[in-house]
Specification:
The protein has 207 residues and is of the alpha/beta class. The chain has eight helices and six strands.
Length: 207
């Protein structure tokens, strides 16, 4: 096994990759366009390809109207009204074309909040896969990735962030998440490059 060793040792075949919101909604020219998504797409696809059957692809879904959203989300969608489901073609909520071919066996799961664990379907998938560790990639580093990552920490999962496979529409927020926030969880979260993660990850045997 080559590559820089991970802090808490190699990753076993029960490792699960959570690929957060790598959708056309963020990759194309929408109100939520995340310019740096294109730069991480190759590494994200490499991680998915390493173990597609151990990958969950989350998709952020917006309501049809702001009035359908609860509480403060209503004000949020009044601000971001051009990403409402009624304003975009359905295909914009799909994962990026480079990743779509991996599902199945990868699982696609919709969510309506930053934290994917709030989706019962996501939690069910995690329960079914029984991960020994979770690898995180996707967008945005300082929003949905971070929210799901911290929920994983609260649930006791060993968590690894692929440094070169996460991005944000806000460069300052991206750097702050990686360099100031996530490093505070040094006993629960590891940050590593894609090459080192793949070198240290033994995928499950193909059936």
């Amino acid at each position: 096994m080559t590559g820089k060793a991970l802090k808490f040792g190699p990753l076993g075949p029960d490792t699960v990759h959570v690929c957060v919101d790598m959708q056309r909604l963020f990759g194309e020219e929408t109100q939520w366009h995340t310019r740096d998504l294109a730069a991480i797409l190759k590494n994200t696809a490499r991680i998915v390809a390493h173990a597609p059957a151990s990958t969950i692809l989350t998709r952020f879904r917006t309501p049809n109207t702001a009035d359908e959203a609860p509480g403060q989300w209503r004000n949020y969608y009044q601000r971001w009204d051009r990403v409402l489901a009624s304003q975009l073609p359905e295909e914009m909520f799909g994962v990026m074309p480079d990743l779509a071919g991996f599902a199945p066996p990868a699982v696609e799961i919709d969510k309506t909040t930053y934290n994917a664990f709030e989706s019962p379907t996501f939690q069910q998938a995690i329960d079914r896969l029984k991960p020994g560790a979770l690898i995180f990639s996707g967008v945005e580093t300082d929003v949905c990735v971070l929210a799901t990552l911290l929920a994983a920490v609260d649930r006791g999962y060993r968590s690894i962030v692929a440094r070169d496979a996460v991005a944000s529409g806000n460069a300052i927020g991206h750097r702050a998440a990686l360099e100031m926030v996530i490093v505070r969880y040094e006993m629960q979260i590891e940050i590593a490059d894609t090459d080192d993660i793949l070198a240290q990850w033994q995928p499950a045997a193909k059936r």
